[in-house]
Amino acid sequence: MAMVNCLIDGIKVEVAEGTSILNAAKLANVKVPTLCYHPDLTPWAACGICVVKMAGSPKMIRACATPAEEGRNYITQDAELTKTRTTVLEMILADHPDDCLTCGRSGNCELQTIASDFGIREQPFEKNAPRMPKDESTTSIVLNPEKCIKCGRCAIVCQDLQGVYALEFIGRGEHTQLKPAADVLLEDSPCIKCGQCSAHCPVGAIYEKDETKQAIRALANPDLHVVVQMAPAVRVAIGEAFGVEPGTILTGQIYAAMRRLGFDKVFDTNFAADLTIMEEGTEFIHRFTEAKDQLPLITSCCPAWVDYMEKYANDLIPNFSTCKSPMQMEGAMIKTYYAEKMGIDPKTIYSVAIMPCTAKKFEIGSCSDMSSAIGEAQDTDLVLTTRELARMIKQAGIDFVNLPEEEVDPLLGTYAGAATIFGVTGGVMEAALRTAVTVMTGEKLPKVEFEATRGMDGVKTAKLNVKGTEVNIAIAHGMVNIETVLNEVREAKKNGTKTPYDFIEVMACRGGCIGGGGQPTGATDEVRAKRTAGIYNDDEKSVIRCSHDNPDVQAAYKDFLGEPNSHKAHELLHREYIKRPVYNK
Description:
This protein has helices at residues 21-27, 79-94, 110-117, 153-161, 196-200, 212-220, 251-261, 269-290, 303-312, 326-342, 359-363, 386-395, 417-420, 427-441, 479-495, 525-540, 551-561, 567-573, and strands at residues 3-8, 11-16, 51-54, 60-62, 73-75, 141-143, 167-170, 177-180, 206-208, 225-230, 265-266, 297-298, 349-355, 382-385, 459-466, 469-477, 503-507. It is of the alpha/beta class and 585 residues long. Among the domains are: 3-77, Ubiquitin-like (UB roll); 92-208, Alpha-Beta Plaits; 212-270 and 328-402, Rossmann fold, CATH 3.40.50. Strands 2-1-5-3-4 form a five-stranded mixed β-sheet, with helices on both faces. Strands 11-10-13-14 form a four-stranded parallel β-sheet, sandwiched between helices. The protein is globular and about 75 Å long.
């Protein structure tokens, strides 16, 4: 690899050819201010705050999008640069509302932080913040165009990383607006509610639909039995909202906090992840051994991916696993199995799910068979993101980090390590293989880890040898990567040849659920790596590593469901799919 030697404020730095001045400066421990830049995205130098100079030249260049050159000395700080950056910030603030105290990003806003860093105390430019209505058309995400600073992050992540093209710039000059494509409501656009736009927005222009008040009302209602479940990825990320290192496992503290908030029962979505493996693993074994014409089997845990599939890849609906997501399986079991065991009227149960994902808010009401457990009522009544739970804990005055650890409630809480790895890309595949290979070979695995499923490559493929039989797998995360895999499947179908893959896992968000749209903001690959390490650590320290060894799952089948893929299991734990239009009319 060719290397470049340059100076950052006189400090010698050696970087790989093509490295931006911004990243070269980081190696010299120099922080160049940015606003539109995000390490996930291709820089496009929209804001102009990262301007620097080359020694001997009065020209200002944008550090985020300019490669460092051999022998150059870059100046990142002087009076002229500070004045220019301050002026840019003042112009942005002139078009931005001043209602910081009531903004969901108050205290965690990049514009607010950088304005404070630059000591901006007055606004020399006439205020020109336009009044525009919020777009609250979806059940998941709210767009507040008044807060938009036109950094472009949301459009880039939606188009380049997700391949959805639900957001774009409309208009020109000072009339430019970031809006849903074709200038329709977000609900009518191609949006899959993944929330990556909100996760990458530096301000409060895009955020999850806050439903903490509904949760608080339910907890205060004496006529309701309020039950909560928590997804695997929540436990390694929520600590960031309290200043804890990403990846720190806080499962016991979360259980304790939920009880202090007033939840009557605290369960774990990981139990249903084990249940999912029993159902989806059985489904895969059937297709692989008896119905190869129905391969590949494509996983169905991610609601944003399901929405994408129903819009963009509905030709492959026959290949989709019919399993509900773990959240929805847990919801169904709460209102049937748990209600029956405890003698509780299911109509009085209010089921809340804590999820790392904004699309989960959409999922609970996305189709009629998400209410199959007790007729008209939804399997899950309310979804709160990791961010929303953190706000509730803070509002309640709970000293979260210092809480003594508590255990999950029995029946629907015990989980295997295989369940917790659902939170990372490749985790569903690895968990399924632990059980499927055991069942197919009739032998206990000497090593439960499947290293081929791990890593951050956008698409991972592998050929596994199962007692002389080849199993071809593919794993994709970040929606833009899945089309490559799907097109290979389509080509095989068109040519009447064997599908290149037997089993495919898809997660909409980079890194899987640990990078979900409802997680604490500020995620980068460095943060995702720490969250991922936390997930695998939780798996490794588990006494039970495989879903089929979970005693509570075994009991649920023995006492209630019968066996995997039984009639009752299909009635409660499986679903159907529909073809959705890309644009609603």
